[in-house]
Amino acid sequence: MLRRLLLVVATLIAASSARAEVIEHLPAGISKVALTFDACEGRGKPAYLDRKLVDVLVAEKLPVTIFATGLFARRNAVALADLAKSPLVEVENHSFDHPQHMEKLSPAQVQAQVAQADEAIAQVTGRQPRYFRFPAGNYDAATLAAVEATGHRVVHWSFASGDPSPGLSPERLRTWVLSKARLGDILIFHINGRAPATAQALPAIIAELRRRKVEFVRLDEVLP
Ligand SMILES: [Zn+2]
């Protein structure tokens, strides 16, 4: 009897976690755009919240989703807590220390990355992350299953803005993003001080998208 019950429970857990989906667009029918910003910090150089970019987000009253690593959240605890007080800002999970290839980790190591980052972020924001983004977008089926088993949904992006590219001009970034952006897109930029063109380009990108009647949403407003 007990064995049978355990089997049923195991099957239910397997079924509920068997999503195997990397979300790259908003759900069908959501004619909006999500602005997401990665706050990466790995075991190398320290990274800091991009103040100029934060000023733009606040001035434009933009709903945004920030994917932070645990290390970034700890280092920028005061500034990130301050930003996350805004109801417009959601902070989600981008691993603990940004392993470039999480597909090379064991499922237990993958889940430890998720859990440690959740803890660091929740300590700063007071809220538990629901979504996860793989560092550099690298994953395989086993890694994806390991993350989904933690209850997080994996959210990537519709097209790369390329904003951390060295020497990228704000004009080029603006032209590229505006040529690609469509309703339902999840846009990706960086807010860790390593994408200097972004703060300069964003006001014009937002102005043009608003001219096209685009509205912006946080991921947690539209994703399950
Ligand atoms: Zn990253």
Bound heterogens, unique: zinc ion
Biggest β-sheet description: 6 strands, parallel
CATH architecture designation = Alpha-Beta Barrel
Would you count the extended β strands for me? 9
| Percent in strands | 5-15%
CA radius of gyration is 18 Å
In the predicted model, the low-confidence regions spanning at least 5 consecutive residues are none
Mean pLDDT: 94
Question: Strands, helices and their partners?
Answer:
Blueprint: H1 2-17, E1 22-23, E2 33-39, H2 51-59, E3 64-68, H3 70-75, H4 77-84, E4 89-93, H5 107-125, E5 131-132, H6 141-148, E6 153-155, E7 159-160, H7 170-180, E8 186-190, H8 196-211, E9 216-217, H9 219-222
Parallel strand pairs: 1-6, 2-3, 2-8, 2-9, 3-4, 5-6, 7-8
Helix pairs in contact: 2-8, 5-6, 7-8
This protein binds zinc ion.
Any descriptors?
224 residues; alpha/beta; TIM Barrel; 3-stranded parallel beta sheet; 9 helices; 15% strand; binds zinc ion
